[in-house]
Amino acid sequence: MAKLKIIVSPTSFFCTRIEWALKLKGLEYELTFEDWSKGKSELLLRSNPAHKKVPVLLDDGVVIAESKVILEYIDEKWKGGDLYPLLPQDPYERAQARFWAQFADDKCFIGTWGACRAEDAQEKEKAVEAALESFTFLEKQIKGKKFFAGDKIGYLDLVAGWISHWLGVLEEAGGLKILDAERFPSLHEWAQNFAEIPPIKECLPPRDMLVNYWTALLSRLRSSAPSKL
Amino acid sequence: MAKLKIIVSPTSFFCTRIEWALKLKGLEYELTFEDWSKGKSELLLRSNPAHKKVPVLLDDGVVIAESKVILEYIDEKWKGGDLYPLLPQDPYERAQARFWAQFADDKCFIGTWGACRAEDAQEKEKAVEAALESFTFLEKQIKGKKFFAGDKIGYLDLVAGWISHWLGVLEEAGGLKILDAERFPSLHEWAQNFAEIPPIKECLPPRDMLVNYWTALLSRLRSSAPSKL
Questions:
Q1: Are the Cβ atoms of B69 and A98 closer than 8 angstroms?
Q2: Does residue B65 sit at the A interface (CB-CB below 8 Å)?
Q3: Statement to judge: residues A62 and A104 lie in one domain
Q4: Are residues A99 and A211 in the same domain?
Q5: Domain limits at B59?
C-alpha cells in the first residue's frame, strides 16, 4: 500500500486532528505542507477544487477533504481487529459524538474566532459571552469523564482537541479569556490531560509559532476590514 | 416500540429530509409541529437546548438533533435485511456523500439564501454568481446518473432534495434564477424526477404556503436590517 499523504498547513488544527487519528490507528503517513506565502499549491487546488482548503487526505488514488469527513473515512476504512476505534458502535452514541463535534466547530471555535476578530469593545464583550455560553454546553458533556468518549480518546476528543492547545493561542492573540479553570473545571482538566498524551503531544505545533501566526493574521484582517463610519 | 416523533416546522426542508428517510425505511412516525407565532415550544427548548432548532427526532427516550446527524442515526439504527440503505457501504463512497451533502447545505443553500437576502443590486449579482459556481459542482456530481447515489435515492439525494421544490420558491421570493435547465441540465432533470417519486412527493409542503412564508420572512429581515449609510 502506498503511504498515506495529508496536505496540511502547519498552523491548522483541522489538519492536526487527522494526524492524531492516523497515529491512534497506527497508520504511517507523510505530510505535504502548503506554503501560503506562495499561494495555494496546484496539488491542493486539484485535490479540493470545491473548497481549496486543507486538510486533504490522499489515499492510494482517492482524495478526501473536510476534516470531519476524513476522520469518519479513516475510522470506516481501518476498523476491526486491533485497530483503534474513533467512533463508538451504538447509533445513539455515534449521533451524540457527531452532534457535539459539529457544535465544537461551529459554535465554540467560530464563536471564539468571532470574539478574537471583534474590534469594538461592546461587540467583543457580546461575542465572548456567546462563546462562553457555547463552552458551557461542552463542559456538561465532559463532566465526570476522562474523555468525551469515556475512558479512551475518541472522535469528539479529536475534533475538540484544538481547545487543549490552540484556544490558549487564540486567547493570547485575541486578548480574551475563555477557558477559565473555575468556570470550566472539567473541560480545563480534560484539555490539560489531553495535550500531555504522547500521540497527541507529538503532533502539536510549537506554541510560539502559532501565536505569531494568529497574531499576524488578526492584524492583517483588522487592517483590511472596511473602516466603520 | 413507541412511535417515532419528529419536531418539525411545516416550511423547513431540513425537517422534510427526515420524513423522507423514515418513509424510505418504512418506519412509522408522527409529526409535532412548532408554531413559530407562539415562540419556541417548551418541548423544542428542552430537546435541543444547544441550537433550539428543528428538526429533532424523539426515539423511545432518546433525542437526536441536527438533520444530517439524524439521517445517519436513522441509517445506522435501522439497517440490514430489507431496510433501505441511505449511505453506501464503501468508505470512500460514504465520504463522498458526506462531503457533497455538507457542500449542498453550506454552499448551495447558504449561497442561495445570501443571494435572496442581498438588497444592493451589485451585491446580489455577486452572490448569485457565487451560488451558480457552487451549483456547477453539484451538476458535475449528478451528471450521467439518475440519482446522486446511482440508480436509487440515497443520503445525498435527501440532503440536496430541497433543490427540487424549495429552490424554485426561493428563486421566486428572492427574485433570482439559479437552476436554469440549459446551464444545469443534469441537476434540473434530477430535480424534476426526484420530486415526482411517490414517497418524496407526498411529503412536499404546498408551494403557495412556502412562497408566502419565505416572501414574508425576507420582507421581515429586510425591514429589520440596519439601514446602510
A1: yes
A2: yes
A3: no
A4: yes
A5: 4-77
CB of B76 within 8 Å of a chain A CB? The answer is: yes
Task: Specify whether B63 is located in the same domain as B110.
Answer: no
Complex ipTM: 0.96
Please report whether residue B229 resides in a domain: no
Interatomic CA distance for residues A54 and A36, integer angstroms: 11
Least confident of A132-136, B10-14, B22-26, B35-39: B35-39
Asked whether residue A195 is assigned to any structural domain, the reply reads: yes
- Residue corresponding to grid cell 409535532: B32
Residue A3 pLDDT = 86
**Grid cell of A79 as nine digits:** 476498523
Q: Give chain A's mean pLDDT.
A: 95
Q: Taking 90 as the threshold, does the pLDDT of residue A178 lie above it?
A: yes
B5 touching chain A per CB within 8 A: no
Residues from chain B that touch A103, judged by Cβ atoms under 8 A, are 50-51
User: Which among A35, A11, A15, A19 has a CA at the least distance from the CA of A199?
Assistant: A19
pLDDT in tens, B172-191: 999 999 999 999 999 999 99
Structural domains in chain A (count): 2
Non-local CB neighbours of A59 within 8 Å, separated by 6+ positions: A4, A73, A77
